[in-house]
Amino acid sequence: xxxxxxxxxxxxxxxxxxxxxxxxxxxxxxxxxxxxxxxxxxxxxxxxxxxxxxxxxxxxxxxxxxxxxxxxxxxxxxxxxxxxxxxxxxxxxxxxxxxxxxxxxxxxxxxxxxxxxxxxxxxxxxxxxxxxxxxxxxxxxxxxxxxxxxxxxxxxxxxxxxxxxxxxxxxxxxxxxxxxxxxxxxxxxxxxxxxxxxxx
Length: 200
What we know:
This protein has helices at residues 65-69, 125-128, 160-165, 183-199; strands spanning 8-18, 21-27, 41-44, 47-55, 58-64, 78-84, 103-113, 116-122, 136-139, 142-150, 153-158, 176-181. The radius of gyration is 17 Å and the shape is globular. The mean pLDDT is 95. The N and C termini lie far apart (35 Å). The protein is α+β, with helices and mostly antiparallel strands and 200 residues long. It folds into 2 domains: 8-84, Beta Barrel (Elongation Factor Tu (Ef-tu), domain 3); 103-190, Beta Barrel (Elongation Factor Tu (Ef-tu), domain 3). It is 16% helix and 44% strand. A hairpin with a 2-residue loop joins strand 7 and strand 8 (116-122). The strands form 2 sheets. Strands 1-2-5-4-3-6 form a 6-stranded antiparallel beta barrel. Strands 7-8-11-10-9-12 form a 6-stranded antiparallel beta barrel.
């Protein structure tokens, strides 16, 4: 479980092909690995991955072909947002994030507006119904608040701090991003569908 509050920007240094996926070696930057052991979870670009090896300030992760097929940002060297799994007594500064990506969105616009940046993303149609104005969404592992929704498109305002400490600063029109919808929306849908089935 995660909060969507990014701890550090890491860098995928190597991508080693496996029989059914890849092994990533990630330089974790300021994240620190002193309290991390083999088997612990770290979110990379919003994707919950298990640490399989540690070498100095680098952690390795195995990524299955299935995960690669439904996410972006894990198949080649590059910068990634990192967050350690929450402890039971940690503050939940963002919202409840599972690290299970629901789909990949496309950036339509990323541009400065005053001191902040406006980010407009087109979500897959299958996810659009779960995205609500003033609701939470995770973009490449970052917990964000939706300001506006129109069909499959949604708008987010990024404050300077968020831009400075995450990989979102690198986005541009056409970029693809990992999306995880608010888990509460999933449960609400399931409860409503179940009630309809019972009374239908």
